[in-house]
Design brief:
This protein has 264 residues and is an alpha/beta fold. The protein is 35% helix and 23% strand. The chain is built from 10 helices and 10 strands. The structure holds adenosine-5'-triphosphate. The site of adenosine-5'-triphosphate has 12 residues, from strand 2 and helix 1. This is Putative ABC transport system ATP-binding protein.
Amino acid sequence: MIALSDIKVVFGRGTPLEKQALNGISLTIEEGSFVTVIGSNGAGKSTLLGVLAGDVIATSGQVRIGTADVTRQGTAARAGRVARVFQDPLAGSCGALSIEENLALAARRGERRGLAPALGARRRELFRARIAELNLGLENRMGDRMDLLSGGQRQAVSLVMATLAGSDVLLLDEHTAALDPGMAEFIMSLTQKIVSERRLTTLMVTHSMRQALDYGHRTIMLHGGEIVLDVTGDSRKTLQVEDLIAMFRKMRGQTLDDDALLIG
Ligand SMILES: Nc1ncnc2c1ncn2[C@@H]1O[C@H](COP(=O)(O)OP(=O)(O)OP(=O)(O)O)[C@@H](O)[C@H]1O
């Protein structure tokens, strides 16, 4: 379970650029629940994921993951329990290392020991089997450098990497936004499969209202660092993309000129 209590994040405190990115967020997410997160630019979505990953330390409030108070823990201390996949396919893996080496590093996230001996024969076989499940043929390219892969292939490997260290929280930061529609759909079905098989507690930031309603169990909308919508169950099932867009318009007090993007 994830529990955020009255989280406030202020960037650049005391400077002319001071910005309150999160303004008292309280949110409890049950174990295994999949929450989609929407909101306009600057609403605080990435900051919220940062607070959970540990790369943003809350100015005030408390963050709990499971029974542990992780409020003051940085990313390294949380690495074994929180995995993250970014919008940029290049961001979550090392291009100069092979697929296999990236998987070995991911499997050791959160451990204190050095890199060796990362790759025994059993591990190699396990990694190969996990990559074969993607049905992308990458199991025959385990020694290829990551930077030879397409963006979609790289996101698929990143999702496998996210599950190797036994993390129970998965943070997805617009992880399909840079992909073509076909690959985005493939990555979303893979995400769905991984999240449900491993019962990962998942937050997915998306700019696609369609994705926000089609995937997961619950949708929250952020605006101005606050939660302005939190829907689940039947009330979410009856919600249409058009309803979300209307809410966006209301929040922003202006006409959206990128409806097509939001619907896609
Ligand atoms: N490191 C930082 N220093 C200063 N201000 C920041 C920092 N990170 C975020 N902000 C500001 O905090 C606010 C929330 O940013 P955040 O990136 O969380 O929004 P977002 O909802 O993810 O937006 P987008 O959809 O554009 O990615 C914005 O006004 C942003 O400019």
